[in-house]
Give the backbone structure.
Amino acid sequence: MWGAGQTHLAFLVQSTFTTASPTHEFLPELMALLPFAIIALVLILARAIGESWLSRLNQRYVQAHADEVPSAFREMVDQPTYRRSVNYTLAKSRFGEVVTLFDAVLLIGLLFSGVLPWAFGKFMAAFGTSVLPMAGFLFATGVASSIVGLPFAWYAQFKLEDRFGFNTTTVKTWVLDRLKGFLLAVLLGFPLLALVLKLIEWTGPNWWIWAAAVVIAFQLLLLLIAPAVIMPLFNKFTPLPEGSLRERLFALAQRTEFPTRSIEVMDGSKRSGHSNAFFTGFGRFRKIVLFDTLVAQLAESELESVLAHEIGHCKKRHVVKLLGVSIAGVLTGFAAVAWLARQQWFYCTFGFEYHAGFAAANVVPAMLLFALLAGTIGFWFSPLVHIWSRRFEYEADAFARATMGDAQPLVQALRKLTVRNLSNLTPHPLYSGFYYSHPTLLERERALEE
Ligand SMILES: [Zn+2]
């Protein structure tokens, strides 16, 4: 009775509250599924415990250096600012621990309470099993999970960031951002989801290759149109005004043969005191964007070095390489879902009925479970990804140094930004290994001054 609706672990949990069904008949099947449930549970707990442990390790490390500015930073940061960076780091870590714990409890609850198969069953009974309602189910679970996250996002912005003077977001902007995000999901995400599900029915066993191709094409299109269509929905972009800075940056673009039509300033200060710079789009659509906060904080030579670093990412083909990895990631993800969608044990472990065949309704549970569980495994690979991304940062720094003929402007820029952003100056190496996509300030300075 593998395919029967109630031969699953979630039923075991439910059955303790209801006496109507004879549990013992299903026990042998339940026992066979137990190892898979235990593996899933261990993976979820291992991640939560791993994250909490890393956080504590880092907090202790930061506190051990808290009383006195470490000698390497004495000329760039004063004692009160350093103290504030320590407090900011600790506050963020503690908040992060709460979120980690909440996420783990929620995930365990979702997976083992039987609520997902129950909701899926109700949804199918009410709306049917064709592509649109199935896309609707996945979309609704996505919306529900982002609603659950709203109080945390609110707290992070209006309490935590606010306490350290970074929050400049108004409640109106915050609410509008969420609404715009939701609208974009409805207009772009939902049709994509429906198309992917339709491909299962159209293309059969190889659906995942088609689905991956469609998602990758969609991502490329998004990269292309985002600067012109999506980003202006959230921020105002104005061309960098005429003057010495503009001349200097365009001269740099020309010197490095980096064709760009415009250098624009984004009103990042609308949301936060943090600062950044980036470029978006391809080829002739490309534009360089500087946060207004960055322009306000850095001297001209420092801004030039930051831009040189960004150009370095492009010249060293990091963008193309990252795109390649993201394509590989999408393909792997869909291959995994397609494989899981053929595993009866996977469905039964989490209480879903298993049906073979290439229909949207047969694959949707695998997609949902994969989306919920992928992070528990992916987390352990983050140090590997970061080793790679940090190598890119070193290469971009070296490019900036070579272009500027001097490491000092970039060193000064990095120091200023680190202090302004109250970045943790003394992260534990293991912690930074898991969470930092960029090398620490000290590591970058050392590499630049070699
Ligand atoms: Zn970079």
About this structure: Residues 309, 313, 393, 396 surround zinc ion (CB under 6 Å).
